[in-house]
Write a structure and sequence with these properties.
This protein is an alpha+beta fold and about 525 residues long. The protein is rod-shaped, with a radius of gyration of 44 Å. Helices cover about 60% and strands about 10% of the residues. Helix 4 (about 100-125) packs antiparallel against helix 5 (about 130-150) and helix 5 (about 130-150) packs parallel to helix 9. The protein has two domains: about 20-255, no CATH class; about 290-515, Phosphatase 2c, domain 1 (4-Layer Sandwich), CATH 3.60.40.10. The strands form two sheets. It has a five-stranded antiparallel sheet with strand order 1-10-9-6-7. Strand 2 and strand 3 form a beta hairpin. The chain has 15 helices and ten strands.
Length: about 525
């Protein structure tokens, strides 16, 4: 990624990373893992409270309130919360340990334990007044924790449950229930009647589930409400404060990203224009319809589809010495702009070499190899090279030199021959000296015969299951249409190729040249 300098400060720290991604991370950091941290705190508190309860019961009473139940339930609650806390602590330290299913499980189990504990505390409390007061207190607490850990809809659902719980508690006593209070004078008069009268009064109140409310209980409830208010305010204010503090840095990162995107857009526009020019140049030097039809005794059709904006395939049809026709087919390694440049360089040097050597195929290949090797490998420092085959037709005979894909011959009687070019040379531009490696062969080309020249983009065209089109299908496609004009055969072969690859990507340039002896 490009590094951008800003006049209002050094903002050049973005190297190799996307500035928008950095800005997103900065804004997300203040609220990152908040739920996990709160859940860890809740788990540890519940585990600690459960452990202290067990210890206090065993120390003071000698046994748990319900040994058969509590000896199983309380340790289970402690271990579940400790397990949740340990998992979330490990996930907090290493994000690779995060498991979505465990996240959901620990959150829901922790909240359900809190909610069940609250319901048990409320509905098993024998004191009517403290039961309703505790219901109110614990409802606020559980709604807050449920909302923070599970989300707003879970909090609304638990709000409905707590309202139902309150309704049940009130209905048990009836709306007409009144909690009777005594003045100090009445309490003093009662005590003056003696201990028996006081105990009788308390027993009568206990029968109606009425127990005096100590001031400490109201103070504790007040502390809980105040603590929840402070916690919510602190949480929101702290989060907003951290986001606000991170905002200037995030804005700078966004500005950097905007500048980079603008520079990138301009660069893409410039490259697009350059590619368009190169594509036009390439199209201009390829032989056109009139050029293909002017060669005596031959019917020629050709078509190339590049895999990207600029193709690395090369084909040409040229006038040779003594009325002969020269055919060129080649494939530059890779594709795109650089391969297109090598293709243009090859076309220009090849035409010159053929004129200088009087159409000598081997010597032309040697000269082209020298040009490509020195320009591409030595000067440009690029490893691109190309397969290149040259053919010269004259008076029913074809001479062939250079290594490329095989040449397919469909004879007039429908028989098919395949001429291997592997022994005829080496990739052009791969080595500096190749004269001893280049050779030539020849074969008869009779009236009605078809000659198929192609690049590997034809035979290696893949469909979705990675199976390639292959040479045999190319032979069958041409043979089945051999009675048609060459142009229609080419169109039919391309139809077969595109039907074969279906919706898969075209990974290489596809070039096909068809020649018929008339």
């Amino acid at each position: 990624m490009r590094v951008i300098e800003s006049s209002d400060g050094d903002l050049s720290g973005v190297r190799g990373r996307d500035a928008l991604e950095e800005a997103t991370e900065i804004l997300e950091e203040p609220s990152k893992n908040i739920k996990r941290k709160i859940l860890i705190s809740v788990n540890l508190i519940i585990a600690l409270v459960g452990t202290l309860h067990v210890v206090m019961q065993l120390v003071t009473v000698g046994h748990l309130p319900d040994p058969a139940r509590d000896s199983v339930v309380l340790p289970l609650i402690v271990f579940i919360n400790l397990g949740s806390a340990i998992y979330n602590l490990r996930a907090l330290g290493d994000e690779r340990r995060v498991n979505d299913r465990l996240d959901v499980l620990t959150r829901w189990v922790s909240v359900v334990i809190i909610q069940l504990a609250c319901l048990i505390i409320v509905h098993f409390n024998t004191n009517t007044a403290t039961s309703i007061l505790m219901d109110h207190t614990l409802s606020i607490l559980t709604i807050f924790l449920t909302g923070v850990i599970l989300g707003r809809w879970a909090a609304l659902a638990w709000f409905a449950v707590t309202m139902a719980s309150l309704g049940i508690a009130v209905s048990h006593r009836g709306l007409e229930f009144e909690y009777a209070l005594m003045t100090r004078a009445e309490l003093a008069a009662l005590k003056a009647q003696g201990t028996a009268a006081v105990l009788s009064r308390f027993e009568a109140a206990a029968d109606e589930r009425l127990v005096p409310l100590p001031l400490a209980l109201f103070a504790a409830v007040s502390v809980v409400f105040t603590a929840l208010t402070v916690a919510a305010t602190y949480f929101e204010a702290g989060l907003i404060g951290r986001v606000t503090a991170a905002m200037p840095v995030a804005v700078k990162k966004i500005q950097i990203a905007a500048r980079e995107r603008q520079v990138l857009a301009q660069e893409n526009l410039r490259m697009g224009l350059e590619l368009d020019v190169a594509q036009r140049l390439q199209a201009m030097i390829l032989p056109r319809g009139a050029e293909l039809q002017k060669h005596a005794d031959l019917e020629i059709a050709a078509h190339m589809v590049p895999a990207s904006e600029i193709g690395g395939d090369i084909y040409d049809v040229l006038d040779g010495p003594e009325g002969s026709t020269l055919l060129v087919i080649g494939d530059v390694t890779d594709h795109g702009l650089a391969s297109g440049v090598v293709m243009l360089m090859t076309q220009a040097s090849l035409r010159t070499a053929l004129e200088q050597t009087g159409g000598d195929l081997v010597q032309s290949l040697v000269r082209v190899n020298s040009v490509i090797y020195k320009n591409v490998s030595e000067r440009m420092g690029d490893g691109r090279n190309l397969t290149l085959a040259l053919l010269r037709y004259h008076a029913g005979q074809v001479h062939l030199a250079g290594q490329h894909e095989s040449v397919i011959l469909v004879r007039a009687d429908g028989s098919v021959e395949e001429i291997d070019t592997l022994p005829l040379g080496i990739n052009v531009g791969l080595l500096g000296e190749v004269e001893d490696m280049m050779s030539e062969t020849s074969f008869a080309f009779l009236p009605g015969d078809l000659m198929v020249l192609y690049t590997d983009g034809v035979t290696e065209a893949e469909r979705l299951d990675k199976q390639q089109y292959g040479v045999s299908r190319l032979k069958d496609s041409v043979t089945s249409r051999r009675a048609l004009p060459c142009e229609q055969i080419v169109q039919g072969v391309f139809t077969d190729i595109y039907r074969w690859i279906g919706g898969s990507t075209v990974y290489d340039d596809i070039t096909l040249v068809l020649v018929r002896r008339t």
